[in-house]
Specification:
It contains 7 helices and no strands. The protein has helices at about 1-20, 35-65, 65-70, 70-90, 95-105, 115-135, 145-150. The longest helix has 28 residues, at about 35-65. The model has no long low-confidence stretch (mean pLDDT about 80).
């Protein structure tokens, strides 16, 4: 639960700083800044998650040191999701989702190359196709591709 809450907070702040602010939507006073209230809520949420996480680590350290080892995969998942959020505006959805799927499958214990590559290719392309052609929602193309192609 803490991982999901911290991911939510990081995702909101990343959207504000890397998407809304460059577009001019997250600047100005309290009435014209559409990122102010979500940013404050996300910052308070992350503070609460950090405090609760520290309390859990302290409790786990007092009880059984092997419980701390279980935090490793959870922290790795959070790092992958944070990397996805930060790389999305630069690399675009398809490449970033490919890397996210590869990393998550690896963290979940899948070690066979062909299933990893097949799912990591098919899932982002299928999701992109649904959003692009059925829902008419344009997913991020990426600044890197814009700079290389345009």
């Amino acid at each position: 639960m803490l991982a999901a809450l911290s991911l939510l907070g990081v995702a909101v702040l990343a959207q504000i700083f890397f998407v809304m602010r460059p577009a001019g939507q997250a600047s100005g006073d309290a009435f014209s800044n559409s990122g102010l209230f979500p940013g404050l809520v996300a910052a308070v949420l992350l503070l609460c998650v950090a405090l609760r996480g520290l309390a859990l680590i302290k409790e786990a350290g007092a009880q059984d040191p092997t419980e701390l080892e279980a935090l490793g995969p959870r922290i790795a998942c959070l790092a992958v999701l944070a990397g996805f959020t930060l790389a999305l505006p630069w690399l675009g959805y398809i490449l970033t989702a490919f890397a996210l799927t590869v990393a998550m499958l690896w963290l979940c214990g899948v070690r066979r190359l062909w299933p990893i590559l097949a799912l990591s290719t098919a899932a982002p392309l299928a999701i992109w196709g649904v959003f692009q052609h059925i829902l008419n929602v344009i997913l991020p193309f990426g600044r890197l591709w814009g700079a290389l192609l345009g």
